[in-house]
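Project outcomes to date are best conveyed with an example. Our students and postdoctoral researchers have been running inverse folding experiments weekly, and each run begins with a structure described purely in tokens. The record below, which covers 107 residues, was selected by the lab manager from last quarter's runs and is presented without edits.
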């Protein structure tokens, strides 16, 4: 459920989006994964709300600043909260710039 929600929202941005890894040839693309899933609320010993921590990675040969803003806005419109964002070091082996954005979501 959470993966399809992320995929649906991010595909609207017009760049390739893939769960965990990307094997295409685009020079700008997005990957994502869930790095934590936990119970957030319970009733009568049953979990009634689940919290998800999602990382969205933007990979690009150029400036990804506008795309990072679009990712944040797209996910916030469906209830995600951005928790952190990092510009990671340039990766000379792939010739790509990399930005990681982390979000939390409760359903």
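After processing, the design step wrote out the following sequence:
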């Amino acid at each position: 459920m959470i993966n399809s929600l992320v995929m649906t929202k991010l595909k609207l941005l017009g760049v390739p989006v893939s769960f965990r890894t990307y094997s295409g040839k685009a020079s700008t693309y997005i990957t994502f994964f869930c790095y934590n899933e936990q119970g957030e609320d319970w009733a009568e010993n049953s979990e009634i709300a689940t919290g998800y921590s999602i990382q969205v990675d933007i990979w690009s040969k150029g400036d990804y600043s506008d795309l990072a803003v679009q990712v944040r806005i797209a996910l916030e419109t469906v209830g995600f909260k951005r928790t952190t964002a990092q510009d990671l070091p340039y990766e000379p082996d792939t010739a790509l710039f990399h930005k990681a954005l982390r979000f939390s979501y409760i359903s």
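The chain has one domain: 2-106. The first strand starts at residue 17 and ends at 19. The training component of this project remains on track.
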